[in-house]
Amino acid sequence: MSTVLAGYGLVKKYGSTTALAGVDVEVRGRDSLAIMGPSGSGKSTLLHTLAGIIRPDGGQVLLRGERLDNLGENRLSALRRKRFGFVFQFGQLLPELPAEENVALPLMLEGMARRQAVVRARRWFAPLGLDGLEQRRPGQLSGGQAQRVAIARALAVEPDVVFADEPTGALDQRTSTEVIQLLTSATRDTGAALVMVTHDADVAAHCDRVLQVRDGRISNYSQFTVA
Amino acid sequence: MRSPVLPLTWHLTRSSGRRGLQSHLLAAGAAAVGAFVMLVIIAATLGAGTRADHTTWRTPDAVPAKQATAVQALATTYVRHEPVTVVSLAQLSGRKQTPAPPGLSSFPKQGEVYVSPALAELLHKLPANQLAGRFPKVKSYGTIGTAGLASPDELVAVVGRTPTDPAVSKAAGDTSSWFDMAQMERAEISGFGGDTASMFTAGDQGIAVLGVVLLAMPVVVLSAAAGRLGAARREQRLAALRLAGATPRQIIAMTALEAVALGAAGALTGALTYVASLPALAQVPFGVGTWYVDTLWVGSPWLATVVAAVTALITVSAVSMLRQVATSPLGVAQQANPRRTRMIRLAFFAAALAVIFMFSGGGLQAEQAVALLLLFYGAFWLFGPWVVDRLGRLVSRFAKRPATLLAGRRLSDDPRGAWRTVSGLVLAGFAAGFFAVSLLGADTSQYRGQVAVTTGHAFEARHTAAEARTLLHRAGVTATVTTGPTDAYDNLLGGGSGVIAHVEGGQEQLDTAVTALTPLGAGRFPYGQDYAGGSDKATFDRLDAVTIGTLALSFLVAATSAGLTAAANVLDRRRVYGLLRLAGTPLKVLDRARVRETVIPLVVLAGGTTAMGAYGSYQLNKAAGATINTSGAIELVVCVVVGALAMFAAISGSRPLLRKVTADPAQTAD
Ligand SMILES: Nc1ncnc2c1ncn2[C@@H]1O[C@H](COP(=O)(O)OP(=O)(O)OP(=O)(O)O)[C@@H](O)[C@H]1O
Ligand SMILES: [Mg+2]
């Protein structure tokens, strides 16, 4: 599989703090990469830089060979909407919208007719174990269910890469395992790559590769051999 | 042991940063606006009462002839369309000395003329043959003091006469035509006690109360929004405190303390602004004119009450908002179930409308009308959320674009909240629609250019007509003089006998004619169209002023609370907005959803009720055979458009806030 997303020599500084001090990463299709490291080491900064949320002070970000780091804000925003999916720790669903409309929202933003978008959105519910919860509002879902809806929303646009920042950070151990299994398998099934930040080694173990970050540098890089 | 609540609150309030300071200032500012608006309208109401009290001496209570010490007659004459109140007084000989009327140092002697400062100015400005000639010739006029006047602009004259003067004779009090009602009185008196206010001030207080009723709700909503704004910001901090072990009671106490301090500071600022702007407020004309500054001073009990009430409202709102956070760490934005509204609201509204319809057929007493208005408001207050809920569902069912869908879902998710934001305007819109297009009163245009002089008997009329021609000719007025046929009840003489002069030329010619013909009136002033329409004009001008004033203030208050609510909503949802923006959702979509969430119910409900009010008024007018007030309708349209734009601007005001709170990925994502 060819490289989908790559960052070379990424540097990001906040005043005197160096959040990223020259990081190189490559992610291929269907590949899943976990980013680990102590608090404040630059994990989120790396994820945001790769996702075109933060512009790096040095280095390049390439999506299928095209540079992102010098695109304008509107182009970047459209790119994130169309080619990336996002799963955050919590609170990313609009509380007034039923689950299926939360999932359909990115499709509608792309101009898909509402009815069609909702039909497409519903297809994700059964595979993610959310059958019958289509009409629930986020406030009526458990934490694990809400995260699965968020995964459905991230995958609905059929992105090239899914970014997840502590997607299980607010869940208990068992739910966390369930959610992470669904996230990795569903992402792989759509052919997308997964880039995930986590504190939890058990969660990281579900990914193909693990990247250790320390003080803005990669300190360790390991490849699991997944059965 | 000392409670840690006080010092901790102080510390947290001080250290809440720039955004915290901004929302403190906003909340206090809202409290200030609320207190100011409430004080102004209360001042207008109380002041209108005081003004009316200052006019009661012109129509004192009559006493039995044996006890009377003087004769008093009230007459009204118009110059340049403005009414001049003329009080004639004659001491009866051989009776006790009558006390001085308010504003005068002693009872006027025969031949003395006292005038209000505004009238003195006018007498000076206008040629004598247009105004001064209507009064006895004097070397100099005395001055009526403020005790006898409702407004610095009032035109009042007090004339001392002999008891045999025709101006105080029985004929002078003969209110033969309905035009004379309340513009002409005569009584034998022994002093100036009484409680009949002048026609030009009597209705003012009732109409100002209407303004209080219309504005009270918007101010309550504004205060609630202010309280909520503070609470939204505190939510995170206090949730953290709770995790750190503070009890819900301590958290609530802290919130209450902070809200009381903010609310009181804001309300006091509003109160001080009111006090400081008293001289400016006094220059705003209402009814008989501008105000004496002390008339508009509400007194410290009212001042304290308003400050306390606004503070209490803000505190209650802040605490009740925070209660949810204090008991559930998930917070306000995460409410699980949409707050449904039930059908019963519709049923109640229909029932109330039926009651109103049943009772509003015939002539209504003022109290009944107010009761029906209150019933209508109450019903509407219950009905509003239901409509918003349905509207939200309708919009979300048919929405094609994400922003519209989001706005629709938001409306049915919290219909009460959405209703609160627009309610003030919806209700004010109804009243404004009703009164702005209201009746102009009886049409008096057929009397244009006419001056009538009444005579005691029909046979005198012919002689009077000849005299009138001579007087008018001498005064340089071109006019045709006719004797009014006694059987024609619809002319300016109203069935009485006398002559009518059809004057050519403008207002100056008319005022000259009235002045020239004054000697023929046997103590009664000649009169014209202004006199005939005086009583209706007094009522409808006031309604017009209060309608427009109330509408303008409603818009000010409603726009402020819409702006605050919009800001509070952004702060409430900053996490989800921030994350959506990270995921590439255009800010424009979120922003449009916010605007539509207020604009849709505003257009549908406020537009609907304004149209309903205007239509209802139109129907009433048609039934009464009167014409529609087109200039009122235009004023209404202008007001609604300007108000809607102000509302829109207020909501857009939080756009930078939305941009800011969603801008920093590090802040939102963690
Ligand atoms: N907007 C910002 N302004 C200033 N400094 C920042 C900003 N964002 C991040 N930093 C700093 O950059 C460094 C890396 O931050 P980052 O959020 O990437 O850490 P992290 O590894 O995700 O930590 P955690 O595990 O706590 O989420 C930290 O020292 C942080 O304080
Ligand atoms: Mg992080």
Automatic annotation (TrEMBL), chain A:
One of its GO terms (molecular function) is ATP hydrolysis activity. GO terms for cellular component: plasma membrane. Residues 5-226 form the ABC transporter domain. SUPFAM superfamilies: P-loop containing nucleoside triphosphate hydrolases. InterPro entries: AAA+_ATPase, ABC_transporter-like_ATP-bd, ABC_transporter-like_CS, ABC_transpr_LolD-like, MacB-like_ATP-bd, P-loop_NTPase. It comes from the Bacteria. Coiled coil: none annotated. Keywords: ATP-binding, Nucleotide-binding, Transport. It holds the Pfam family ABC_tran. This is ABC transporter ATP-binding protein. It comes from Streptomyces regalis. The lineage of its organism: Bacteria, Bacillati, Actinomycetota, Actinomycetes, Kitasatosporales.
Automatic annotation (TrEMBL), chain B:
The chain crosses the membrane at residues 25-48, 207-230, 251-282, 302-322, 343-363, 369-388, 418-440, 545-571, 598-618, 630-651. Residues 213-320 form the ABC3 transporter permease C-terminal domain. It is a multi-pass membrane protein. It is found in: Cell membrane. Keywords: Cell membrane, Membrane, Transmembrane, Transmembrane helix. GO terms for cellular component: plasma membrane. The keyword Ion transport does not apply. This is ABC transporter permease. It comes from Streptomyces regalis.
